[in-house]
Fold each of these.
Amino acid sequence: MPQGVLASYKQFLPINEDTPIFTLGEGQTPLIKSRNIVKTIGCEELYFKFEGCNPTGSFKDRGMVVAVAKAVEKGIEAIACASTGNTSASAAAYGAYLGLKTTIIVPQGNVATGKLAQAIAYGAHIAMIKGNFDSALNIARELADKHPIELVNSLNPNRIEGQKTAAFEIVDEIGKAPELLYIPVGNAGNISAYWKGFKEYFELGFSTNFPELHGYQAEGASPLVTGKVFENPETVATAIRIGNPASWDNAITARDESGGLIDSVTDEEIISTYQLLAASEGVFCEPASASSLAGLIKEKKNGTDFQNKIIVCVVTGNGLKDPENAIKISPASYGEYQNDYQSVEKVLIN
Ligand code: AN7
């Protein structure tokens, strides 16, 4: 298969002969088979679709490559987005590759260190606002309305087009759609994209079934669960600290058409799952990404029987994005030793 989302999935994307084809290596991420947590869940097979392996460390790259290609096709020289961090890292990378001016608007104090480091390194123009993601998105939309700038948030339909390819990869690898798919939900673009992908693959005859989609928000930022906008969303999972999701209606459609649900998990559940996924499966993700598995574990604790089910948890971003939360894991299993062989050996062998 050719490399990258544009070349690999040309026939499924809004690509024509004027669309530039390029890649930073996005897509074709691993579908990791659970060895340990699968036993607790009691299902037939459990997989983690590890989107942290994308070039900037999150699923955003799949959609960004399409959004940027379409902007360049139109002759646009500048892109902008609001972001909790990952969208901005991705926009900055593809903007740099294509020589575009990239402006990102982010909530001051609520972007994980690694994401900010990426935007700085890629050379984006960074506007930090004293407000949350929802305000940043309003500003970004106005900028794009008034200037020849392409908005590359997931309101841009080309983002959704690119992100739907993850659903194709899951079906191709398992040989059918899983019975259940768990996914973190913030601005709700990705759950909408997966549903579009599963539906299109079905309609084209590449699969014969659909998954139920189970979306999980953080309790302190769960407007799709309560049905009300959160004016002051708050969660340790800063990636999904969003109070008024842009793709609200599409997420509800995805939930209802798939026969699934959108629920929330607490910060405690998110952090304990984040630790569990790294320490018992070798999959180090950022906190927001653990909300999918945290939701599955919550349903198991509430008594759901998963026997005979094939389940996929989407793990949206890389753990290296947010080193501060990893370092807070306690008890940390390290100590300080004398600078000689014997003292280290003595402690490790006892
Ligand atoms: C790791 O980067 O909204 O429901 O501005 O970074 O499609 O918003 C990030 C969202 C899940 C939620 N996991 O996806 C942004 C941004 C991670 C994320 C989500 C995000 P959507």
Amino acid sequence: MATYYNDHTVMFLNGEYVKASEAKMDFYSQSLHYGYSVFEGIRSYKTVTGETRIFKAKEHFDRLKASAEALNLPYTWNTVELTEITYEVLRRNNLQNAYIRPVVYAPANMSFNLNTESYILIEVWEMAAFLGDKLLRVMCSSFQRPNPKGFKIHAKAAGHYVNSILASQEAKAKGYDEALLSDMHGFIAEGPGANFFYEKNGKLYTPSLGNILPGITRATVLELCSELKIDVTEKEILPEEVYGADAAFFCGTAAEVIGFASLDDKPFALPWENTISKTIQDAYKNLITENKIALIEEVVGVE
Ligand code: PMP
């Protein structure tokens, strides 16, 4: 099991900075029993100038609020204060390259009724710079993503992740690195914790919004495509179109941009180094570390 904290680790819990090893939560929480909570996954990076930067803090804390509202969880915080608190938690733990996990959860309540208040915690732990070199062997999952008529699929709700866990565990049990899930109509949706793109004949394709989590990294990749003049289309995608395409990748806050070696054992046609997907991977790395010179060189095409 991974270690996320030690006796010195500090977390933010309902207005206080407390030791993670001493923090308490209510075991009668509606969140623990029914998966009824919302959370975020955020990264901070040491930039090229040595500063600590939370990447897309506003987008993540705005989504936390939107997720809470989608689930009727009372939400009394604002993005600016939560961003400041998170920088303080990072400082108190002496962390720059970190993973940040805010959770909004419910009080003790064994019924399904609405609550009058929610609680919040913010945990951080070390995450080393991601190398992104190892290509993934991915399988199309036997699990579909939750039906958007049964769940608020655009919300980052804890309960949705039972589906992610089942799909990821199935893939690993079968010897793959990760799963790719379809929506209820059989179109490709996303990975258990990342969005999906594939590349064919110099163009990128990604599933349309509606049956997926609208990823902040996905939106960043779309912005990079526009800056780099890369043609990208959001559409319904069947697995058959992806088999033998030029390249494919997952993108997400934790995954960053990570290429596929194969899908259902069918390899991709181009070596990763020769793909526009790799160009996106490099541009993303430069963006998160605020390597502006390299980014400009990419846009103007300097080698
Ligand atoms: N889809 C799912 C199911 C996820 O859990 C994540 C990770 N939050 C993503 C996509 C990617 O979202 P983001 O880029 O905002 O991290």
